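Morning. Coffee machine broken again, so started the prediction first thing and wrote up yesterday's gels while waiting. Chain of 725 residues, entered below exactly as on the submission form.
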Amino acid sequence: MKNSMTLNGFTRSALALAVSAAVPLTALAADEVRELPATQAQSKAEDSYAVSESTLPKYTQPLLDTAKTITVVPQSVMKDRNVDSLKDALRNVPGISLAAGEGGQPTGDSMSIRGFSARTDIMIDGVRDIAGYYRDTYNIEAVEVAKGPGSAVSGRGSTGGSINLQQKAAKLDAVNDVSLRLGTESDYRAQLDSNLVLGDTTALRVNLLTDDGDVAGRDEVYNSNDAIALAFGTGIGTDSRFSANVDYQKQDNMPDYGLPWVGKGSNPVAELADEEGKAPDVDYSNFYGNVYRDFEDITAQSLTLKYEKDLNDSTTLRVLGRTGTVERQSVVTAPRFYDIDTTTDVRQSDEKTRDTKDSLSVVQFDVIGRYMTGSIQHDVIAGVEVFSEKSERWNYDDNGTDNLDTTPVLVDLYNPDSHIAYNGHYSRGDKLSETKGDTSAVYAFDTLTLNEQWEVTAGLRYDTFNTEYYYQLNSDTDPKAKRETADNMLSWNAGVVYKPAKNGSVYFGAGNSFNPSAEGLTISAAQENVDPEETSSYELGTKWELLDGKAFASAALFRTEKDNARTTDPTTSETVLGGKQRVDGLELSVAGEITDAISVTAAYTYMDSEVLESGTEAEVGNELARTPKSSASFWGRYQITDKLAAGVGAQYMGQRYNSANITSREVAEEYMIFDMMVSYQVNDQWSVQMNGANLTDEEYIDQLGGGHGVPGEGRYLSLTTNFSF
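Came back before lunch.
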């Protein structure tokens, strides 16, 4: 009853704040109002690489006038580069490094942005997507990366940045797109994107996907996905709009933990001595799992409802609700040496099992408006968010039948056998744990346009985040044992924009973020009573629209600093907020049409990271994990004739460490890979496209874990045919 009363009071206060934001201000006349961000535009033209608006309504200004580094990967780039996953889309955004599933976390989309983990900072249409799995882009219109602490916009986490995936929406165009891709890995991918106009303001969009194939450069590893998404919209183009989106995906994958590290300080046999602290010198296609035991089944589904009402020319109400679940069962072999100081054999007894269900329910209520106080224009968004999350985990056990585990079975490092007979059987047992998380938040943002040259932005968000973690439900002694957290957190952002010209801006932005102990819906005994970490960031930059708005360029200097990082007190062995970490860096980017025939998107990120203070002395002075000093990406398209086009691209990733602890960290060497594309428009309805990825068949470590590194994909060629009618 106490929680209910608190929540109701919180909600009433938040709604009052949101509505009051609109009351004392003078509404603009209709001819002074630009279109409110009920549906954010993604680019100036459907085939343009340049993007002018954010995918999120909380960023009310064009990207040119937003005091933050924001990169949007539009549909045009994803189509040209043959992108079909979030991981592939993010290769267009340097400053992001991928992590491998480990440490209690599943395989899936896990990355660091500007040196800090962003595993829980992935949003879909502005709503946190909490589970660990690989996200397909078949139903995604654009991928947006906002860098720098952003808890005021996204809530908890968002230390180095956050990622938003914008789902495809129904529109008033009768368009049907069918594509079929065949590749060199015995793979196929078939998609249907059909938009049906049902009335003057009503439409239904259907996206279907079936995808199956091996992973290039990796023995035995494959991914399969069948999915359907329905987007219904009515009132499109009117002052009262309603939409419903349903997404269902079923994945059947062979999980991959890659290669074992030759551990630093492990005193390996002479044969591996020169490879200590990095991946072994083996064929990067080697697979150390067992095809008869390892598997990964994922079912993800969600329902999103959104209603928008324009009260007048200046004010829009927006209500969004979502419910969804991600269920996962998997067994994956972690490659580990049996006894590295005497042999190079790898054991198959380190299997990781997972049987989980993650669910969420969320409601967001926003007031969006543009008003005047005297000569000052206000772009305002204020609202509340109520979020309920649950994470459940069951025991997934073989009941002693796993012959690969009990022996244990060993395989040769240089020629592993992934087809050893397996006679075990894993099945669901008792529920092990359950975490419930409840978030209530109120927020408000205001951008003040003082005159044609100066804008000031300020935003606040207040969160209450309460969790209950039942961690031994299968215990006979105390099945109701639980750990609890109750965190109240205030986050903010602020920015000043100076416009020396209509097409350019110079800005300074600042903001903070918080990382509670239960951020990922687990609570260790050591962290139960530890306050959230806090991070602050400062950014000085400039942005320009060039070539009559056809291209967009930006540059920024930034500092991100965590002053109270969790660390272990060396005298008491308790977890304390005694660490300090810093990342200084530079961002450069350009995207758009350089000429009528040439389009490019290119970016470079430099990061100088350091652990300034830590309870672990061996970390002090070292780089943060998964934080390359330099990373860059380039993609260019040349329209040779009206029908023929070609594209080339490259991605560079600098050296990265899997840990900041110098006594035990392993290193992944720098790499550069090259891609290409050739497309031909046969007629108005039919086109064909050939893509090549990693043309030089570079061997490199793509995802870094504590005990292993996962190689990136090898050379891959594909042919796609597209029909539009």
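The radius of gyration is 26 Å. Going to sketch it on the whiteboard this afternoon.
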